[in-house]
Design goal:
By secondary structure, this protein is an alpha+beta fold. It has one domain. The protein is about 25% helix and about 35% strand. The protein contains four helices and nine strands; from the N terminus they run H-H-E-E-H-H-E-E-E-E-E-E-E. The protein has a six-stranded mixed beta sheet. Strand 1 and strand 2 form a beta hairpin. The longest helix is centred in the middle third of the chain and has 15 residues. It starts with a helix and ends with a strand. The N terminus is likely disordered.
Length: about 180
């Protein structure tokens, strides 16, 4: 699995959320997010990028207890990525790791500079799944629309050793197949 993660890490460096926002979606667009899926050997890497407004309704560090509670719920929901990203059962995928990055998740430290002076901020997530039968992966259901109602559309791009696929998911169409 270490070799697989290394290959996926290299792929992820060429397939980053920041690059995707600038090249695929254009400007920071509320209501729309991007999910990139890479499958190789026994791993599935999901790279997610969204305006923070889609997830929280605001785009800054939490400024009060209500905003902090929303941020905590968002982080906990995404940490349980196995309930948000569901692959077909034949692939036997289990969540291996989650990494989240956002100004809203940074420690409240006076020395931490807020790099989002324009009022726009994002959340980026990397989710790695180990799949016992990755060659049997055929689809992924994305369940982000219920807990995050400000998310209206999710652009999904998939790269596997056999093929590439793309889809625009919505609350009514949550599955990408390849």
């Amino acid at each position: 699995m270490k070799n697989t993660i290394s290959v996926l890490a290299l792929l992820a460096m060429t397939f980053t959320p920041a690059m995707a926002r600038s090249e695929t979606l254009g400007a920071h667009v509320h209501g729309i997010a991007l999910l990139q899926v890479a499958v190789e050997h026994d791993a599935m890497l999901l790279s997610f990028s969204s305006p923070l407004d889609n997830m929280l309704g605001f785009e800054h560090k939490p400024g009060n207890a209500t905003e902090q509670a929303k941020t905590d719920v968002m982080a906990a929901t995404l940490q349980h990525a196995e309930t948000m990203f569901i692959a077909n059962p034949e692939a036997a995928c289990t969540l291996a790791s989650v990494h989240l990055d956002s100004v809203a998740l940074e420690a409240d430290d006076a020395d931490v500079e807020d790099h989002h002076h324009d009022g726009h901020a994002d959340i980026d997530g990397e989710f790695i799944f180990h799949c016992s039968h990755a060659d049997r992966l055929q689809w992924l259901d994305v369940m982000l629309f219920d807990p995050f109602p400000n998310l209206h559309r999710l652009k999904v791009e998939v790269v596997t050793p056999q093929r590439q696929a793309a889809a625009m998911l919505t609350n009514d169409e949550r599955r990408v197949s390849w």
